[in-house]
Structure formats: C-alpha cells, structure tokens
Design brief:
466 residues; 33% helix; FAD/NAD(P)-binding domain; alpha/beta; globular; Enolase-like, domain 1
C-alpha cells in the first residue's frame, strides 16, 4: 500500500478528468488512472477530431458554391489525408492541455489499467510494467464505452470499421456503407460524402436519427437525399462479408433482400460500456446488462464506490459524463451540486452533420403518449434574415410546451449552427421559464437566435415573420 488518496478515478475521459479537476479544486487528494490517453474517446477518437473534419467538410461545401457567393475556384483539390492530419493535431493539442490541467491541479496521473481490490484499494497494472496498489477513501469508475458490434460481425479495422479506425483513416474510401443512422453514422456520412465518397446509410428503424423528433429526422433525410446520399431505413443488416476489393453487406428491408457492395463498411450502432475486468463483481458492485447501477448521486450499492459516464448506461454523451463527474465528486465532499439531481431527459443532444441537429427534452409524440396536452411553436430558418445572409436556411426551430402550465417540454432544432442555439432553451427549461418569457425577451437582430424567439411566439400562434 502507498499513500492514501481521497478519491481514485479509473478512466480519464471527459467524466474522469473533469471529476479529477473538481475534486482537486475542493481540496481532495486525487489519483487518476488511465491506460491510454487523457481525454478518452471524446478528445482522441470522437467528439473533437470529428468536429475538425466537419469543419473541413464545411469549407469544401462552401467552395462548391462559388457561383452563388460570387467567386470562382480553379484547380481545386481536396486532400482528405491532410484533413485527418489536422484533426489529429487538434486532438493532440487538447490532450496536452488536459495534461497541463492535471499538473496545475496537482492530480497524480498513473498510466495503467486499474481494477478494484476493495472499495478502498485500486490495483494498477502499470503500462511501464509491474503493478501498483493505491489506497483510497473513494473510487469513481469512469471507464467509458466502446463501439457496439453487430452479433456475428467482427470489425477487422481494415474493411469493417468502427469509429475508432474511421477517425484516423487517411485514405478516403471511394465507397462506404454506414450501418446506423445515429449521430456517429450521419456525421461520417456527411464528411465522406462531402469529400466525394459514394455513401449508403443503413438504419434498422424507420428514420435517420431515430431518437429525434420525427419532423427533425424527416428534414435531415430530405437534405441527405438531395445530396444523393442513399438512406435505407427500416432495413436490417443480415451479414457482412469481406471481399478481395472491399465488403459485401446483405440487408433486408421494405424493398426486400439485397446485397450492397462498397470499399469499406462502418459499424455505428451505438456504444457499449467498458465494465469488464474491473473487479466489480468481486467487490460486490451491482451490474445489470453490463452497466453499473447508480443512484441519483452516482453512488453504487457499495459505499465509497461511484460510477459516471458511459459505463452507467444513462446517456452516452461527453457532457453528461462531465456533469456526472462533478456531482459525484461534490457528493463525496458534501458540497455544491452533490445536492443536484441530473435530469437525463433534459440533457442537450447534438448531431453535427449538415444540417445540424440539436434537441433536449421530449418530442411532441412522446408528450402526447404521456397524456400531455401540448402547444407547438415552429419557425423556419428560411424566414430568418441572418440564415438567408449565410446562405444556410434549411430547417427550423420547434418548441413543445405544455398547453396548461406553459412548461417547456422539449426543444427540437435543425438547421444552421443550432448546436450553439440550444443552450438558451435548456437554460430556460432548467429555471422553469415559459415560452412566453422567451418570446418577450428581446433578441438582437439579425441573429439566428431570433428563430428561438419567433418559435416561442409561435407556441401562441403569434410568430411575427411568418
């Protein structure tokens, strides 16, 4: 046994490293155990590098609209490998930044694979060799998740990819089949198609982005079809076979059975928790279907052991993991947001394809299913001056409100930079503001945010500019 820590965190993704910083700010002695890279999937293979690639795709899209904006581009060549290289530099810069934050806050970073020996002891198989045992008063498990596989189909990293291989692939596939039309699948479809790949997206459920409001999903589907991205919804993958030149994917759907061929296939059907080989069962931590069971304060059933992020199975988003990390640490310290109960339904959700999608709360259909009487306000970006000036005016803002109380039940946005617009609605909901109060808040003109105000007016049938 070595020195005793107040809290030892296993996993340095957005949940783990944020928890470490907050714990150090409070004055706790912190150890952070990580087997790979600080920042986890988000900084290294997910959120950050994909946003860099999406920015490259946006620039290329604008260059393709030169006539509309009054310029001519000749001899233009898009270098996909250079775009990937830029994304890696962006990710590396942020990872270095996290390392600097650990040093600044006095967090002991231990490189290796951690597992619980007891609620007060963590054994680390060190990357450098050997083992080290940490004595600790509390443990936070923040081991994240990994790509979920299709039963019977094993990604090989060459022809059959997960996001982890796809994000570092410097050679643009001439053709690709993407299995899963969730955020990961739709973002890669947008990037690869913009660079010239022939892309087919296969989704088992009836709509792309199936967890979004149906009107939003339909808007995104129209946009992708206009760009000649093939979307096969209500279609199930039956098998994937590697060939000499690529892959052959057998699918069955409303159009019957068919075989699709492409150079590569990306499996993007969600994530599964990394809960194995952590000593959870030996310590007695309750695990159900691979996820660690936690209460509203992120406590497990074993005193002193907490869990945050994807491994809890709550909502696999980086900002959710970070919020959970702060709540868990402040619960340990008996301060601040340890008294806050996170509302996972009200968490912001974003997809960064074009058009962007941002939402929180429940959809109109879900509200009706729950017996709520609702009023809905909509405002299209085609009636917004800033959107017209940007030349990016597909989509709309939709607010779902309770018809009796005025409570905002959900916000569903699709269109230009809506991921940046969403926080106003999330904040309004958090502090129990109504659509009327948003409508009567003066928004600067011309801005995209005016669409929020107009949609709020629309809840009462009083939108000004439509």
């Amino acid at each position: 046994m070595e020195q005793t820590y107040d809290v030892t965190i296993i996993g340095a993704g957005p949940g783990g490293y944020v928890a470490a910083i907050r714990a150090a700010q409070i004055g706790l002695k912190v150890a952070l155990v990580e087997k790979e890279h600080l920042g986890g999937v988000c900084l290294n293979w997910g959120c950050i590098p994909t946003k860099s690639l999406l920015r490259n795709a946006e620039v290329i899209s604008l260059l393709g609209r030169g006539k509309e904006f009054g310029f001519t581009v000749t001899g233009f060549e898009a270098d996909f490998g250079a775009a990937v290289d830029r994304s890696r530099k962006v990710a590396q810069r942020l990872v270095k930044g996290v390392g600097a934050l650990m040093r600044k806050n006095g967090v002991a970073v231990i490189e290796g694979l951690g597992r619980l020996l007891s609620p007060n002891a963590v054994e680390v198989a060190l990357n450098a060799g050997g083992t080290r045992t940490l004595e600790t008063r509390n443990v936070i498990v923040a081991t994240g998740g990994r790509a979920r596989a299709i039963p019977g189909i094993t990604p090989d990293g060459e022809r059959v990819l997960t996001y982890r291989e796809a994000i570092v692939l410097r050679e643009l596939p001439a053709s690709a089949i993407i299995v899963g039309a969730g955020p990961i699948g739709m973002e890669f479809a947008h990037i690869w198609h913009t660079y010239g790949a022939e892309v087919t997206v296969v989704e088992m459920l009836p709509h792309a982005l199936p967890l979004e409001d149906e009107e939003v999903s339909a808007e995104v589907e129209r946009a992708f079809k206009r760009r000649q991205v093939q979307l096969l919804t209500s279609t199930r993958v039956q098998g994937v076979e590697a060939t000499a030149s690529g892959v052959r994917v057998s699918v069955a759907g409303e159009q019957g059975e068919q075989v699709l061929e492409a150079e590569r296939v990306l499996v993007a059907i969600g994530v599964q928790p990394n809960g194995e080989n952590l000593g959870l069962e030996e310590v007695g931590v309750r695990v159900e279907r691979g996820t660690i069971v936690v209460d509203a304060r992120l406590c497990t059933n074993v005193p002193g052991v907490y869990a945050i992020g994807d491994v809890t199975g709550k909502l696999p988003l980086a900002h959710v993991a970070s919020a959970q990390g702060i709540v868990a640490v402040e619960t340990i310290a008996g301060a601040g947001s340890g008294e806050v109960v996170l509302d996972y339904e009200a968490m912001p959700r974003c997809t960064y394809c074009q058009p962007q999608v941002a939402s929180f709360g429940i959809t109109e259909a879900q509200a009706v299913e729950r017996g709520r009487e609702v009023k809905v306000g909509r405002f299209p970006f085609r009636a917004n001056g800033k959107a017209l000036g940007l030349g990016d005016y597909a989509g709309f803002v939709k607010i779902v409100a309770d018809a009796i109380s005025g409570e905002i039940l959900g916000g569903h946005l699709v269109g230009p930079e809506v991921t940046e617009l969403l926080p106003e609605l999330v904040l309004a909901c958090r502090w129990e503001l109504t659509s009327e109060e948003i409508a009567h808040t003066v928004h600067a003109h011309p801005t995209l945010s005016e669409a929020l105000m107009e949609a709020a007016h629309g809840v009462f049938g009083e939108a000004i500019h439509i």
